[in-house]
Design goal:
Ubiquitin-like (UB roll); alpha+beta; homodimer; about 25% strand; globular; about 400 residues; L-amino peptidase D-ALA esterase/amidase
Chain lengths: ~400, ~400
């Protein structure tokens, strides 16, 4: 995958001591000119300080963003007034380096909840980053925001004379509506705020809001998009821009699930034949979140009854006698039908197991009730998930 | 624990070949006289045949129950019209042995979804059970309904001149509202149907509806209570009867969580200071179901941020700045306060870890918003849960 630099943006990642293992742990993105920006944030009632801080900045109609600073190690959540003050101080230091106002800087944090930001380390990190910024720093920045991620997550598209490139992090605490996930996407297109907001809302709905690792929704989930106009191209075709942004978001969202904590399989759960899309989404999420379904995926066990069961408790009316279920191959094509009319078929079980042992496949449940459909990307629940989360802090 | 026989009831459990490992797999309870009966059933839209069958019988005002037959191995769910016919045929065979009408027999099934009931084995089992019934057969019946359970679950109380004794099974697919759990409770008190229904609804609300193993709600969950009046004592004090029934239900529900699949710890999650009970319940269930909270319990990691985070996404308004959190000892007494005003205290972390390494303790989250409170019983999420459910059918 080619990661295209975005005109007018520079980035860097480095290590400042937030992670005991010595990995890079802080990243900075700077735009040479003010950006229009939009954000989508966690709906958790317990919001981290950087979420509250960024929401306040973006609530201003005249917000003109110049930089985003992101740290790992501490989520700066449940840290009270001091947490907000630490976010503000970090932004102010970045503003000094960039030559802008503190209110032109957005902040992102991920890591342990309740730990105050180690400000000495943050200050060292910001100072170091100021001398490291490069137009091709995307991979460096992506690596520096990893926590339990095993690989950096980047995506990039070029259309209509402008570029959209983004990075994301996230591997656990991934629920259907946002996650312990951060994403920063930059474009050199020129676009007004309201267009960015519409495009981001549409793009996240079909990407970051369609992923499940463990069903937990974090205190810090944030997706930011910044448009600095440095390409000289104004977005004329909003639909094309939205599609390109959605493409970047979908690549990043899929990368999060593929790198889900302990995940060994990437599974797309399709729900078709629903009476309406809301019902399809509720059922797809219920299946994709079920611990029993996800452990069966892990064990490559075509235990389709667990899928029907999870559909049944999604709170959506359905007729069990009309349900049909297929396993899909990696391309999404039907491979093996397991259920028709709500009852099992005499399918080829060894073939089903063999398919489920591959790293990427899907399942499609048809409700036989209408024409609405949707999908959710999920992963399996493995021993390693338990290992990773039983002792995350140590 | 003493398990008191219940006058007029006999039971037995035996092996008929439903379980390849040769363990007992079918149980029968018979009352010498007709019983008033009440049931609480799964709210899953995909209901197993025995659930539909029992609901139809209990919908008749003149239902007079003489027997309950329970099998493991096959859940008789997603089995269509043949599944209902198999439930009916099983009931008819039991009725022949007992000397009653088929409609006087209730059926329970648990096991793999979508597998037709192996009727040859069931017929052999029912015939054998007919010659084995004993007043002290409770432990034998409880053992015969086990699936991934590691131990039988029984409870018994005597009050006011009558006895209430019950058995239950369940270890996985245990969600806050019922579970892959079956429970049969018998009393020799005389009680009208409406009293039984009220008492069972109240008792399940504070027992089987307050437990979580994995958040999955099964297709088969059923709690039955049968009252045959053989003690000659009519229930005069409904509150006392309800309390005694609730005691039996609570013992059985706790036994299910203690034996949760892979569980190493029994944790009571209390929520206090809520504005209303519905909010308290939603938050307690969210905490008790969170995979991240449960893996932290497994790892004895006082990662209180995950508890606040799970409270935050329960869909209930709360003020993060008013949250307080304690670890409780096995008696429910506060042991260590971790959080006050939404922020961490400088608590004794080694002591917290040591407490969390014990097999039974609790956590209390106070919302600082009102006087309502509740609790949920849960267990940890361990490597063994994944092992058990990754390959359940094999």
């Amino acid at each position: 995958m080619t990661i295209h630099p975005v005109t007018g943006f520079t980035l860097a990642g480095t290590h400042c001591g937030l992670k005991p293992n010595g990995h890079d742990d802080i990243a900075l993105l700077v735009s040479e000119r003010p950006c229009q920006a939009a954000g989508v944030f966690t709906t958790n009632r317990v919001k981290a300080a950087p979420v509250l801080y960024d929401q306040a900045i973006l609530a201003r109609p005249d917000a003109a963003i110049r930089a985003v600073i992101a740290n790992t190690g501490s989520a700066n959540a449940c840290t009270g007034a001091q947490g907000l003050e630490n976010a503000r101080a970090t932004a102010a230091q970045v503003a000094d380096i960039v030559g802008c106002a503190p209110d032109d800087v957005l902040t992102l944090s991920t890591g342990v909840i309740g730990m105050p930001l180690p400000m000495d380390a943050i200050r060292r990190g910001v100072a170091t980053l100021g001398g490291m910024l490069r137009a091709d720093g995307w991979a460096s920045a992506a690596a520096a925001v990893m926590t339990t991620d095993t690989r950096p997550k980047l995506a990039s598209v070029q259309v209509g004379g402008y570029t959209i490139t983004g990075i994301a992090k996230g591997a656990g605490m991934i629920a259907p509506n946002m996650a312990t996930m951060l994403a920063v996407i930059a474009t050199d297109a020129a676009a007004p705020r309201d267009l960015l907001e519409r495009a981001l809302a549409a793009a996240t709905e079909n990407s970051f809001n369609r992923i499940v690792v463990d069903g937990d929704m974090s205190t810090n989930d944030t997706v930011l998009v910044l448009a600095n106009g440095a390409s000289g191209v104004a977005v004329a075709d909003e639909a094309a821009f939205t599609a390109a942004l959605a493409d970047v978001c979908a690549q990043l969202a899929q990368a999060i699930v593929r790198d889900g904590e302990g995940a060994t399989k990437f599974v797309t759960v399709h729900v078709t034949g629903a009476a309406d899309e809301a019902g399809a989404v509720a059922i797809a999420r219920s299946i994709a979140t079920s611990a029993l379904v996800k452990t069966a995926f892990y064990g490559a066990d075509p235990n389709w009854g667990r899928i029907l069961c999870a559909a049944g408790y999604a709170g959506v009316d359905l007729d069990p006698g009309r349900l049909a279920l297929w396993l899909l191959d990696a391309s999404g094509a039907p491979a093996i039908q397991l259920v028709a009319g709500g009852q099992p078929l005499d399918y080829d079980e060894p073939a089903a197991i063999a398919l489920m042992q591959t790293p990427e496949w899907g399942a499609r449940l048809d409700l036989g009730a209408g024409a609405a459909s949707t999908w959710v990307w999920t992963c399996d629940l493995s021993h390693d998930y338990v290992t990773i989360n039983g002792h995350y802090r140590t």
